Amino acid sequence: MADIANIISGATYDPMKDLDGVKDAQAAGKGKDGKEVKKSRIVHVRITQRNARKSVTTIEGLNPKISANKVLRHFKKTFSCNGTIITHDELGEIIQLQGDQRENVSKFLLEEKLVKKTNLKVHGF
């Protein structure tokens, strides 16, 4: 019944909602004992639905040392989809791919050791 209440009230699901906690943790940068903690970047792989059956997969939080252009070029070629890179002030470079590419992207990032499994978070519906 809660789902129907959300539909009636007009409440929507915000896939970027969990970013607030990530920003707070990155801003602190210190552990319980007051020592500096090595910051580990969490890579978020999300899917958002555009309209009808169309969807977009976004990858954010990749290490800035990694060339997003090379990664995008590889994604486009192997997954047979189109994509683009969006530059965001706070989040850095975000890769957008057409279609639901969550499994393909996460598998590639883990196989190429660009991201540790503990630092990869796959979101979806």
TrEMBL record:
It comes from the Eukaryota. The keyword Protein biosynthesis applies. Residues 43-113 form the SUI1 domain. CDD domains: eIF1_SUI1 (cd11566). Transmembrane segments: none annotated. Keywords: Protein biosynthesis. Signal peptide: none annotated. One of its GO terms (molecular function) is translation initiation factor activity. Gene3D superfamilies: SUI1-like domain. It comes from Carpediemonas membranifera. This is Protein translation factor SUI1. The keyword Protein biosynthesis applies. PROSITE patterns: SUI1. InterPro entries: SUI1, SUI1_dom_sf, SUI1_euk. Belongs to the SUI1 family. SUPFAM superfamilies: eIF1-like.
